[in-house]
TrEMBL record:
Residues 439-526 form the Ubiquitin/SUMO-activating enzyme ubiquitin-like domain. Pathway: Protein modification; protein sumoylation. Residues 197-229, 544-568 are annotated as: Disordered. The lineage of its organism: Eukaryota, Metazoa, Spiralia, Lophotrochozoa, Mollusca. Keywords: ATP-binding, Metal-binding, Nucleotide-binding, Nucleus, Transferase, Ubl conjugation pathway, Zinc. It is found in: Nucleus. This is SUMO-activating enzyme subunit. It comes from Lottia gigantea (Giant owl limpet). Heterodimer.
Amino acid sequence: MKNSLSPNLYNNVSNCKVLVVGAGGIGCELLKNLVLTGFSDIQVIDLDTIDVSNLNRQFLFRKEHVGKSKSQVAKESALKFNPNVNIVAYHDSVMNPDYGADFFKQFKLVMNALDNRAARNHVNRMCLAADVPLVESGTAGYLGQVTVIKKGLTECYECRPKAAQKTFPGCTIRNTPSEPIHCVVWAKHLFNQLFGEEDPDQDVSPDTEDPELTAAAGESALEKETEGKEIERKSTRVWAMDTGYDAEKIFSKLFRDDIKYLLTMETLWKKRRPPEPLDYNNLSDESPSSTNDMRDQRIWSMKECADVFSKCLAKLKTDLAAQGDGGMLVWDKDDDKALDFVVSAANVRANIFGISQKSRFDIKSMAGNIIPAIATTNAIIAGLIVMEALKILDNKFDKCTAVYLNRKPNFRKKLLDAGRLDPPNPKCYVCSAKPEVTVVLNTQKITIKFLEDKILKSELGMVAPDVEIDNGLGTIIISSEEGETEQNNDKFLSKFNIINGSRLKCDDFLQNYNLNITIAHVEKLEDEKEFMVVGDMAELQAKLDENSKKKEGESSGATPGNTSSKGRIGSVNYHSNLYTKQILVIF
């Protein structure tokens, strides 16, 4: 490789220290490329261990490596290509506080080979904090992308809003599923209720507060319709334990009794096919699919589903007991017991609601949010990462591009399409000079703990936030120091006089990241949403006013010039229903 690079570039390559984040599909190819290109000081970090399902595309791993650290085995295998390279492997999460800004500052370049957005967001912020160039990458089947991120010169990873992972209203999951994915989500919720981390939002029991019931029947009619039909509210885990995880009792409760209860909600079935309860001791042994000897490809009969369900319950019960008091299991698509539990439960529920059943292979893809990985795609993307890295090390940032790998040649007959790197978004809530964002929620229903876990950490990507109310008093409601503000967790935002227009100052010491949040209070959001992250108040209000004018014009025949005070965010008499219909996510 020395003869292929200019003397200056080769010297830069051989003397720089680089960090590779991720040692999976892209990471394996990337490590091989780096050691063969001449990089001699490499550090790699990955939290995962090797699974059998990795072996078809992550070529640095063999069968004997299953269960071992990905980063460590990748290091050992890559050294066989060039034993003179210094590789340091970390079997750890890159989001661990040990890897702060000072850790990132030691590298000349960081290369991402990740498969999840949370880690990508975090590495993006760490590279911005350390002012280290980042080569970001990703693949999805035959598609792939590589781009360069440099503080102040290019867009960061979070400059453009990413499409949110699709979610479904709880009432659809619990009461009126209509697609296979609804049944798969319900089955995963059931796993967590029985064996994992219990979450009230993942309750699998019939939902008596279904908005469709209220809207169609009215409050008084709803009370009459469900009168005397209430199911005793009891933790699913506690109830299952009381039965000794008895398969027949659990099956009968979920797939017979709960379904019969749903049928009493007659409003739901006026325009839908009503579900049909199943009897554990009277199940069909006919498979809806054609004969196929491959268990993963054929669709199981209801009797086979019940048998698998029973066996998985027993095995998972044993696994849970081994965790000790307070222990829990984490659903893993590569754990046969956990996967088979979801496959069997999802297909039984699908059968009940007249929804097409799916094979084990298909449900694994849906439940694991899997897009089948293509080894050649990973190889191409890893090669492009190194090419962009060489441009950076040759001080040719102006030559760096965003490269897209297409499944088929585009209109210009290209499989690889390169475009210019865009400048930073001046309104980005991560890399702009004054990061700001507005969060729309009901301050009387959102707790401090919800704010920390679901909004700051999950939605806004923080790791260790400290939050202070910007009221001149320095009131701290969330501290990254363990236990300091624990007493605030279950209190609603309104208890701290956080109202419409209140400002919160958020600081994440690990990411060296500061964010100002403006709270926009509403009584209720559409589609059962608990909060929304939007742009600044002025943009939001302008869009709201524009949509309000259109809506009023359509309903009253008014001219576009007519205006209305309804929907005004700062108004005391603010019309929340209009607002929830008009609100848009704006960045």
